[in-house]
Amino acid sequence: MEGGKKIKVAVIGATGAVGQVFMWMLSDHPWFELAYATASASRIGLKYASTVHWVMPFEMPGKLKEIEMKEFNYQKMKEAGVKIVFSALPAAVASEAEPQLRANGFYVFSNAAAMRYDKDVPIMIPEANSEQLELIKQQGYPETGFIITNANCVTTGLAVAIAPLRKFGIKTVTINSYQSVSGAGYPGLSSFDITDNCIPFIKGEEEKIEKELKKILSINPDVYAYTVRVPVMFGHLETVWLEFESDVEPDDVIKAWDEFKLSEDLPSGAGKPVVYSSENTFPQPKYAFWGDPKGMVVYTGRLKKKNNKIGFVLLVNNIVKGAAGGSIENAETFVRSFGLV
Ligand SMILES: NC(=O)c1ccc[n+]([C@@H]2O[C@H](COP(=O)([O-])OP(=O)(O)OC[C@H]3O[C@@H](n4cnc5c(N)ncnc54)[C@H](OP(=O)(O)O)[C@@H]3O)[C@@H](O)[C@H]2O)c1
Predict the structure, then answer these.
(1) CB of 99 within 8 A of CB of 112?
(2) What are the φ and ψ backbone dihedral angles of 234, each rounded to 5 degrees?
(3) Most-buried pick from 16, 44, 67, 267 (CB within 10 A)?
(4) Average model confidence (pLDDT) for the chain?
(5) Does the CB atom of residue 139 touch ligand 1 within 6 A?
(6) What is the pLDDT of residues 196-214, one digit of tens each?
(7) What would the DSSP string read from start to end of 143-170?
(8) One domain, residues 292 and 330
(9) Which ligand 1 atom is the nearest neighbour of the CA of 14?
């Protein structure tokens, strides 16, 4: 909050799978006021409830229903007092729009892959690398706006679970994912292709895991990844094997997860970012919206050791912690670190 007032924010791409999570989480946020929502031009002037195909597994908050969809226009966003822009645009649209938003002075928190690999653009996960916030100065902040991205959804879960284990020295990461259909956006895949089926290829995903994990955690392990789309609505499950530099016992891993905390208390940050259970059928995608805040916890289970490797299963909510919730947490980290709250 600036001067006791909430900071005005916009959501661009407000009708997609990720955009809907932004709208839900921002409908009642203690620091941010949802002042502007846009999507494709065909929706301008329509009420949110009448134009969106709501895919969340709970009712739309009443406050969102009457919000009018606006034109995606920088000048009008400025006139509305918007400071922070949350982007849920497809990468091809974001690659043009986000640098222009930055040049127009907006603080952009993006889910798109378009800008993630630029040297001065952080891929931020507050649990893992909030020090990368400093990179915004290289983009020209405070004279200009800036762009902060969050990671690809499957990488986010992996990076959060691995962050407290970095201290053991990670030599190799083997990961197989079971990714939900909401990860492909709305309407996403054809039901004909995914019903009763699994698809063992998600374009560009395996490469993103390797590239982003290394940038986020500043580590350089060999990464072996397979990504599979499965007929599940929300939540990505991942099976992981880590090879360490030192001899690590399952109890060391449980202790590291147990003691792991965010350095700051943030409205959208989970008190315990990684929650482990020894229950042998845990975790499952049906728990994707568990936790406090909902969908922001990474769940782990099925921990085991073989030779010098530790294996486990994790669950991340791809559209909350793995997308919009992660972006909002990044924005909270920024306003807290730069004294705007
Ligand atoms: N889904 C996930 O789990 C996930 C996780 C992490 C990151 N991401 C990334 O987040 C971004 C959004 O993903 P999504 O799954 O929400 O996609 P989506 O369901 O396809 O939504 C895309 C949104 O962008 C809007 N849009 C498209 N073209 C536009 C244009 N030219 N001008 C203005 N608005 C436009 C769409 O509006 P209309 O509805 O009006 O067309 C819609 O609101 C993507 O970059 C994706 O890679 C997604």
Answers:
(1) no
(2) -130, 145
(3) 16
(4) 97
(5) no
(6) 999 999 999 999 999 999 9
(7) TS-EEEE---HHHHHHHHHHGGGGGG-E
(8) no
(9) 43
Expressed as residue numbers, the domain containing 252 is 153-317
Position 99 confidence tier, pLDDT thresholds 50, 70, 90: very high
* CATH classification at residue 163: 3.30.360.10
* Ligand 1 proximity of 155 Cβ (cutoff 6 Å): no
Pair of tokens at residue 175 = 């990961």
The answer for residues whose C-beta is within 8 angstroms of residue 79's C-beta and 6 or more apart is none
Amino acid 4: pLDDT:
77
Three-class DSSP category at 64: helix
Q: CB of 90 closer than 6 A to ligand 1?
A: yes
Is the CB–ligand 1 distance for residue 48 below 6 Å? no
| Amino acid found at 233 | M
* CA–CA gap between residue 300 and residue 284 (Å, rounded): 10
Query: Would the CB of 72 count as within 6 Å of ligand 1?
Result: yes
Which atom of ligand 1 is nearest to 18's Cα? 16
Q: Ligand 1: does its nearest atom lie under 6 Å from the Cβ of 14?
A: yes
Q: What is the pLDDT of residues 43-74, one digit of tens each?
A: 999 999 999 999 999 999 999 999 999 999 99
Whether residue 2 lies inside any domain: the answer is no
Q: How confident is the model at residue 124 (pLDDT cuts 50, 70, 90)?
A: very high
From 48, 54, 111, mutation site for ligand 1 pocket: most ligand atoms within 8 A of C-beta: 111
| Mean pLDDT calculated for residue range 246-267 | 95
Closest ligand 1 atom, CA of 110? 10
Residue 104 sits in a domain whose CATH number is 3.40.50.720
User: Do 22 and 36 fall within a single domain?
Assistant: yes
Residue 158 and residue 22 share a domain: no
Asked whether residue 125 falls in the same domain as residue 23, the answer is yes
198 in catalytic set: no
Entry pTM: 0.97
**Residue 89 covered by a domain:** yes
Are residues 332 and 215 located together in one domain of the fold? no
**How far apart are the CA of 281 and the centre of ligand 1, in A?**
33
49 and 198 housed in the same domain = no
| Same domain assignment for residues 17 and 33 | yes
Give yes or no: residues 134 and 211 share one domain.
no
